[in-house]
Amino acid sequence: MSNRAKRRREFRAQFSLPNFTDLPIESRYIDAVLLLGGKLRSESRWLNGVGLEATPQVIREIACMPFVRAIDPIRQHTRLFEVPTRGSVSPSAPPSAKVLDYGNAETQITQIQADFLHQEGFLGEKVVIGLLDTGFNLEHTALERVDVIAEHDFVNDDDSTADEVDQDDPNHDVHGSVVLAILAGNAPGQLIGVAPRARYLLGKTEKVSQQGVVFERQIEEDWWVEGLEWLEGMGADVVSSSLGYADWYRFADLDGKTSKVTIAANLAVQKGMAVVIAAGNLGAQPPSEAFGLPGRMTPPADGFDVLAVGAADRNGQVLPFSSRGPTFDGRIKPDLVAMGAGVTSVDSTTRGGFSSNHLGTSSAAPLAAGTVALLMEAFPLATARDIVHTLRSTASQAEKPDNIAGYGIIRARAAYDRLLNQFGHTGFPKPVAVQPTSDLLPATLGKLKRGELLQNYPNPFNPETWIPFKLASSGQVTIRIYNSDGRLINRLELGKLAAGDYSEKHRAAYWNGRNFDGERAASGTYFYTLEFQGETDTRKMILLE
């Protein structure tokens, strides 16, 4: 488990301490089944199980071992993600009057009010988003600057998620690339993703085809679980996955606790992650108990506090193919809807092409996941559950949810306002409005009546800076400095000061760029607060090494 995962659990997990699900599988059990002739395909700490390839005789022998509780044979399934429409490269939209030029992606951003969060200065910085999909082509011009921490191919067990000639059929990574670009794309005038400054972990867990034949095996669920465990251990805050599994499940299995992918998704939520899943594209099919889950959402979208996302058109009307609820135990699903038709993303079969014909809940889910990431950046002390519940309670039909649109279209601004009321007075700096085109980061919230906190200088700075302020009366003054995760790293006790202007050097507060332990602070964004006569004011500053 990475240090980042430990910090996330400390702040956001239901149970912050490691438990039995974090323990590795007993190695002697694995060795024993391999000795019988099984070939290891996957492992899951959380489920305490392995994926094996073996003959029927070997499987029968394994089933008799005293430490084996159950054997779950791999079955075939019908692929549930849609192949993105390509070949229709749309021209750029007219230049936007907004701070960011979204191009043809503007509607998908503004419909969910993510543009408001962008204008407030939140672009996903310091939030880690993990994706589980078919692979990722990072050579497209809109994806070249994506901040990828790590990637892993769980299908072929290597560290490359792009297509490889000796392993993958052509265009295997198209679906994952489209999803990633909706989140992280950065091509002004063509496409700006929801969270372009987030950091990313990329997991390839789906095999589309093999030598031209569609690959439909339940082992992909095992790879998905393995990938989710990897994302959690690497410290992901948000998971976005536009994959679902259905053929071997019935409606009674949609109880939030039956499918292995749902169980794993629930565990990820308990460990402090926000898990965002495409609801599925089976809505146009009539409900049936006879075969698979026609009309229903697909696991793991049935998980508890898993954010299942349906698809709507540009006018907010739910699309016919968007999978419906409820869960077997009566919970509302999907949770939210976002744009899932006419979505703009990359044409990843080209080096620099774009298409506005992407379709499906696969396109809606990353819009929701990106919104979660922006709210995490804005409110570092809010848990994933806090944000998920707030998005539900502020969506367009929160007063009358149903099993077609759930709680409705995401309303990021309403969620921001609700979270601000809840977390705006917790001691952590309140969010600061930022104009991305300006070097200054002016605060617009929490102004002091008895004094005023001014912008530090220089800004950006390295390694030291002055923090100016003004006081309308005398009193005790404290400056607190927080990192972007909300941790207090230093405190400047200035004592009792007279009323006056403390803007000039040697009168302003001085910070040497070090934490409580005397260690130099890392490059990044920091918040500083002025505490004076029971009031707090906040601003933002940047340390650049």
How would you describe what is shown here?
This protein is an alpha/beta fold and 545 residues long. The chain has three domains: 3-63, no CATH class; 103-423, 3-Layer(aba) Sandwich (Rossmann fold); 451-543, Immunoglobulin-like, CATH 2.60.40.4070. 21% of the residues lie in helices and 23% in strands. The protein has helices at 3-12, 27-35, 56-63, 106-110, 114-119, 174-184, 219-234, 260-270, 361-378, 384-394, 412-423; strands at 39-44, 49-53, 128-133, 147-153, 186-187, 191-192, 199-204, 209-210, 213-214, 238-241, 274-278, 307-312, 336-339, 341-347, 353-359, 451-453, 465-467, 469-471, 475-483, 488-497, 500-502, 509-511, 524-532, 535-543. The strands form eight sheets. The chain has a seven-stranded parallel beta sheet, sandwiched between helices. Strand 8 and strand 9 (213-214) form a beta hairpin. The radius of gyration is 25 Å and the shape is globular. It starts with a helix and ends with a strand. The model is unreliable at 76-97 and 425-448 (pLDDT under 50).
Average pLDDT across residues? 83
In percent, how much strand structure appears in the residues?
A: 15-25%
What's the overall geometry?
globular
**Largest β-sheet summary:** 7 strands, parallel
Q: Strand tally, please?
A: 24
Helix content: 10-25%
For this structure, the CATH topology of the largest domain is Rossmann fold
The side-by-side strand order for the widest beta sheet comes to 4-7-3-10-11-12-13
Over all CA atoms, what is the radius of gyration?
A: 25 Å
What is the CATH superfamily classification of the largest domain?
A: Peptidase S8/S53 domain
| Regions with little confidence, pLDDT below 50 for 5+ residues | 76-97, 425-448
SSE class: alpha/beta
